[in-house]
Amino acid sequence: MATRDQNLVDIRRDLHQYPEEGWKEFRTTALVAEELDDRGFTLHLGPNAVDPDERLGVPADDEIAAAVERARDLGAPERYLDQMDGITGLVAEKRYGDGPVVGIRVDMDALARQEAMDDDHRPARDGFASKHPGEMHACAHDGHTAIGLGIARELDDNGGFDGTLKLFFQPAEEGGRGGKPMSETDHLDDVDQMLALHLGLGEETGTVVAGYDRPLSNAKLDVTFHGEPAHAGGEPHAGKNAAQALGAAIQNLYAIPRHGDGKTRINVGQVHSNNAQNVISEEAELRVEVRGETASLNEYMLGKARNVIEHAAGMHECSHDESLYGKTTTFDCDESMVRAVADAAGDIDGVSTVKDRKEFGGSEDASYLIRQVQEQGGEATYIGVGASNPAGHHTAYFDIDEESLAVGVDVVCETLRAL
Amino acid sequence: MATRDQNLVDIRRDLHQYPEEGWKEFRTTALVAEELDDRGFTLHLGPNAVDPDERLGVPADDEIAAAVERARDLGAPERYLDQMDGITGLVAEKRYGDGPVVGIRVDMDALARQEAMDDDHRPARDGFASKHPGEMHACAHDGHTAIGLGIARELDDNGGFDGTLKLFFQPAEEGGRGGKPMSETDHLDDVDQMLALHLGLGEETGTVVAGYDRPLSNAKLDVTFHGEPAHAGGEPHAGKNAAQALGAAIQNLYAIPRHGDGKTRINVGQVHSNNAQNVISEEAELRVEVRGETASLNEYMLGKARNVIEHAAGMHECSHDESLYGKTTTFDCDESMVRAVADAAGDIDGVSTVKDRKEFGGSEDASYLIRQVQEQGGEATYIGVGASNPAGHHTAYFDIDEESLAVGVDVVCETLRAL
Amino acid sequence: MATRDQNLVDIRRDLHQYPEEGWKEFRTTALVAEELDDRGFTLHLGPNAVDPDERLGVPADDEIAAAVERARDLGAPERYLDQMDGITGLVAEKRYGDGPVVGIRVDMDALARQEAMDDDHRPARDGFASKHPGEMHACAHDGHTAIGLGIARELDDNGGFDGTLKLFFQPAEEGGRGGKPMSETDHLDDVDQMLALHLGLGEETGTVVAGYDRPLSNAKLDVTFHGEPAHAGGEPHAGKNAAQALGAAIQNLYAIPRHGDGKTRINVGQVHSNNAQNVISEEAELRVEVRGETASLNEYMLGKARNVIEHAAGMHECSHDESLYGKTTTFDCDESMVRAVADAAGDIDGVSTVKDRKEFGGSEDASYLIRQVQEQGGEATYIGVGASNPAGHHTAYFDIDEESLAVGVDVVCETLRAL
Amino acid sequence: MATRDQNLVDIRRDLHQYPEEGWKEFRTTALVAEELDDRGFTLHLGPNAVDPDERLGVPADDEIAAAVERARDLGAPERYLDQMDGITGLVAEKRYGDGPVVGIRVDMDALARQEAMDDDHRPARDGFASKHPGEMHACAHDGHTAIGLGIARELDDNGGFDGTLKLFFQPAEEGGRGGKPMSETDHLDDVDQMLALHLGLGEETGTVVAGYDRPLSNAKLDVTFHGEPAHAGGEPHAGKNAAQALGAAIQNLYAIPRHGDGKTRINVGQVHSNNAQNVISEEAELRVEVRGETASLNEYMLGKARNVIEHAAGMHECSHDESLYGKTTTFDCDESMVRAVADAAGDIDGVSTVKDRKEFGGSEDASYLIRQVQEQGGEATYIGVGASNPAGHHTAYFDIDEESLAVGVDVVCETLRAL
């Protein structure tokens, strides 16, 4: 934990080696908090950064405890771990002038996947691949966190800007689990402008997209069917077959009618049932995701999915549990902010192409923060910073061109100075 | 209508030309009634032969009316049509001695199928094929009715037997629709022995099976899913898709778990949905049949099927109607009766082979009459009379060897005389 | 057949009383041909108007023969019926000047549905409802044909325009069955501009839409699964169950994955299987429709649907037949033509609102004629003429405000004169 | 490894503490081999006891290697481990007289399940519960192995019998994986009588069932569907969805038609697909079991299941692998042997009830050994020895009344002496 002496690339590589999945970003949060504390930022940690009751897809208590312990073992300062009280996330603010309050949102969490460990993968070749088996920064959030810190450094070391800087280091973006609980605090109440950003997204280094619009609204459901076991040879009639409920659910979920008003999506990502072959399946789990081009199309899909699941259970005389694992909404960037970013980006060394707007394609839970600011009369945009990724997001060989880190910092700082 | 002057073969051929589907046997009933009336039998017709409220799978009123009209046009005497009052079926009884009351049950209805009309088919070749398009005696009930009349003639012309003869001319055996309503009357209350019989069933002429056991219990459900139409191109989300309910129902009906206690069956025989291709299906019908080796296995299947149907509807936000189209139960023949029939059959000219017992295989709604008699302490058997059928039951080329008619009459009369 | 003395409203009402489904428009074609023949148009009838081998969804021979006979009985002149030789459709052309060849396409076919016959429905109230049970002009093609004739009259009686008029009276638009075979002839080779039009489409009388863009590409498949029957009680294993193939097909057709590039649609409009309940289903039919926002998305859906159907058959050991019932493609109107129509419409009495462009929503097989003209360098648009419909297209109470007929004629004629 | 000094109960408890799953019974095999070697039996170990190429459901090489290593660590003699060469199983024979060669088959493998570890469970309470997490003797094979050794001791210590004793210590009975490879060796060629036995099966201690007939033939398939991943939001069309293949497979497997000739069974015991929720499923696994009352009914189910799986894959454009995990057949016990066992059992202390024959219900791969002997003219029976199990077979609280061990030894030895 000596990040204050590291440059952005080193910080990103440090974070890359110690990836932490959603709601487990204790070391990451503490590392950021320590430097911003030193720089005189006001800190709001854990339960003061997110509304604990609004958290989605929270791991089991023992997993959380193990993640805290792991962070402690890796040198995360006790005082920040204490303040977090088992909940990750950080809002840090500092006033430099009388101008607007500008929020910057970056995410910090890693993915549950094993990183490639062969020499075709630069992090492995250069010795900074993940040291946490089964966890990996495969969506550039390590870079985002480094950029968040880089923005604080750049402004703090160079006289700030005419306004207040409010940094949102958001936990649990993957799955859409941390954005809503962060948006439900009062930290957004005075935010006039909000910027969020993402590295990569298929763009080359040197390209800046000044506004990504209309991410798909998204919801994720975890479902368990509960049946009753029975010997499949002797008493097939005596069971209540959770695997049959599962089969009926999969078939009919994908068959939810398309919607005339716009894009909808459905997917069943995980499926598990664990009985022996000669026992009627007692329990079966599935993890479902729906999306819609608008929040209401997403609700349409979520309602239909829940109905299918309920009747798939009933059809095979099973009961079922379901819980919302994550959820995001959608937004359109404000033209004024898009223009501001595009103008600022045009003046930056290392930026060769500026694109005004693109359609998002995927889903993002920055959407909750952005909409909240927009609904109270503020403005926002979601910036893309090209990073020449050698492999797709969420894959084992994902990496970023680290030149993009400085571009990300500069685009945001120039925009702030120009506002 | 001059059957009294006809021999059994002529009667059978007359009936064969004018087949009447279940609950439409007005001409058939009237023809039998006329002769038995002349012979001094006490007649119970239509609503006095079956419990009207217990009828299953009754055609629409206008179809019934058309069937009455057709019978009238074909010369059925008005006085019997009047007594029937729109309901077919006849119980006819005559007392010959102080001995037991013996019930004989024969069925009268034809099938909804077109008879073959080419020269490979004897009824066509010899000019007595069906004159009613789409209706055919393809299960030998024309022969059964002739045998019923033949038994009355044989006994009546030859001094009867020491007991009371009670003839049950049952309507609507196909589908299992007429047996239960006939068994729910009080005509069975005093029956001591019950005999039912069937021609054919895969046996050659000259073979008699003294007892067919354990027909499968059976139930038939008519189901309609009600959805809402919508334009499939513009508003696919606005419909409630009855065809999807249908698809989910079919898939899951066949997947009803097998039962550890014995044979079960499921079938979806008819399926209809009639929308244009560009409209979400508003209505879909299916006709389902379940069976079980025992009455309770049949109930198991019926309960499961209803549950699947309910949830297939709910899964696609449709409502549904369902009605029981027909139902049968099961029985075991009484050994004493099997013995009596076997002994009698052994003495008859034209009988070359006597088999004691066989498993039934199919379903039969004589089951309700047989069980009713057995439950009140009586005895029963279900007799098979070989008829060297040139083609399978229910097919367009089905026919019987008419030599079997006399065998059927003789087996029953000899049994009665020996009881 | 005295249409030459009738005004447009009378012609429309005459056609409305004698609706003819697709490929059965013998009277309609003959009626139009007779007048245009008198006016000196060059006629191309039936096999000279459409490529016979490219026809889709053609009724059975005996149905065609019956339709010819019906037209003859209604007074359709023998000489035109002869020329048609069992195939409907007409291309009629007349040269008025040296300018461009302008094609006008109108459709003539009715729908297979019963018209409302009560007094809430004006055609019934005023005595011009359909005299053909089960057939109805419920999509305004009667009006379209009248307008086609009206355009010929208006131009012919008033000096024509500087160019050649080529009228395409297309059969079998419903289902997308007649457009492609008409586009495969050489009649389009010299067409410089193409206009098609539709009454209604949700617009009030007085509104003109100068260009409808991007109808959904569409394909319709007729599928029959062939299995093998067996007794569902005795030998359930011996059948090959076409109803199960049907169930698997329905479930998996609706579950064809959505496409990331744009709208797709799937529907199963008709389903039939006709066995008795106690027989494993020998044959099952379904009628499927797919759509895509582009021709390639339509092909995606069609390919996926065919694969589902093939494996649904294979899964239940059935074979299957499939045939394309109809197909349409998509287009964008040319801006120059949209402008020309909008400008012309602005000057017409009875037009109160002009809309430049709208999205089509549904599907149209004028698409084949329009694309063909565009691909050879010509220009085209698809015009909407408001008609204040009291009920939705394709419903039993559909009607048009007949004021719209004159508007339709005028918009086209003014556009031609201004070109 | 000091079993020679232990009594049967101690041996059973020793085995119970060190349960080894199928094909991992290295310690168990070595322990038995050591004592029988000392007693002068001729040993055939591992590749000499089973045909290596016929083994089914063999664990991965590294799992086998770990099991060997574990056995070595627990003191299994190196010389037997060497002879096994990675394959478990033992045939041991000794000639005592000129009479018949009698085969005794016992199984040795444990189940993959965690044993209950609380005081309600006697093995836990008395300190002999499983020391191998996730493995448990929950089907009494520890007792069977002990009985096998007990039979050898009893005969060997008391002058043998007039014939040759051939003991088959079979590996991998669970799943039906070891019986067939053992039956494919030549060890059965000279066997005149074959006895197999099972403890428990719902009978109280003191009850002996002289012949269990007609176990269900059984086959187990392991199936993996291989699709292609794609982002479920951006490119749902680009994937090939293994989870959809899975859903279609489950629905249609359970819907395999029942068979008119007798009992059939189908079950899907395990299902797995592991993608993130936002990725189209790349791979999905299922473990299927079919059964039939006869070998040919089992083949019917297996063929149908394979067809469903193939087309479920094809329907969703996936490929698939499948492998047979295990297989059993069926048999009827020979009356002569049943009589011999029943007579012998009647004379034994501790036997209070002798039942001649029962229906098996479940499946058994001793079936391959028994049929092989019967087909070459020998005789066989499958004996049940009551053991008052406190909980069902295969459950966490399964245990046996150890009094049953002596009964098992005595029934077999008395039968041999009487043959």
Architecture blueprint of SSEs:
4 copies of one chain form a homotetramer.
Chain A: H1 8-17, H2 26-38, E1 42-45, H3 61-73, H4 78-84, E2 90-95, E3 101-107, H5 122-125, H6 141-157, E4 164-170, H7 179-183, E5 193-199, E6 207-209, E7 212-213, E8 217-226, H8 242-254, E9 264-274, E10 283-292, H9 295-315, E11 319-328, H10 335-346, E12 353-355, E13 358-359, H11 366-375, E14 379-385, H12 403-418
Parallel strand pairs in A: 3-4, 3-5, 5-14, 6-12, 7-13
Antiparallel strand pairs in A: 1-2, 2-4, 6-14, 8-10, 8-11, 9-10
Helix pairs in contact in A: 1-6, 6-12, 8-9, 10-12
Structural write-up:
4 copies of one chain form a homotetramer. The first copy, chain A, has 2 domains: 3-215 and 330-418, Aminopeptidase (3-Layer(aba) Sandwich), CATH 3.40.630.10; 219-328, Alpha-Beta Plaits, CATH 3.30.70. In chain A, the strands form 3 sheets. The first copy, chain A, has an 8-stranded mixed sheet with strand order 1-2-4-3-5-14-6-12. In chain A, strands 9-10-8-11 form a 4-stranded antiparallel sheet. Chain A has helices at residues 8-17, 26-38, 61-73, 78-84, 122-125, 141-157, 179-183, 242-254, 295-315, 335-346, 366-375, 403-418, and strands at residues 42-45, 90-95, 101-107, 164-170, 193-199, 207-209, 212-213, 217-226, 264-274, 283-292, 319-328, 353-355, 358-359, 379-385. Chain A is built from 12 helices and 14 strands. In chain A, α1 packs antiparallel against α6 (141-157), α8 runs antiparallel to α9 (295-315) and α10 packs across α12 (403-418). The first copy, chain A, is an alpha/beta fold and 419 residues long. The model of chain A has no long low-confidence stretch (mean pLDDT 96). Chains in contact: A-B, A-C, A-D, B-C, B-D, C-D. The interface between A and D is large, with 48 and 46 residues. β9 of chain A pairs antiparallel with β8 of chain D, so a sheet runs across the interface.
